[in-house]
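Review the following:
>
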Amino acid sequence: MADMSPIFRRKAAQDASEVPDAPRAPQDRLVTLIRKPGCHLCDDAQVVVERVCGELGVPWEQKDITQDEELNRLYWEQIPVVLVDGAQHTFWRVNEDRLRKALS
């Protein structure tokens, strides 16, 4: 791409970004549940995340916003928040079918 004009380089980069990523194996995915203690919506979200990830073989983790200033700053009004491979998937209520579809 180095010998292309800036217009063609930009178009080539845009075209490359439009190509969907190859499907990833379940064990190569990661779901992160961002929550805080005593949050009933967080407890509900955890049940859904555990069920879907367990069925699909996708690893998951949870992070406590009371223990991480950056997460608290980013998500304190949205918890629980679910990230899929580091990108925000949903917040407040987790839809089981939507999460399953995102991971399949």
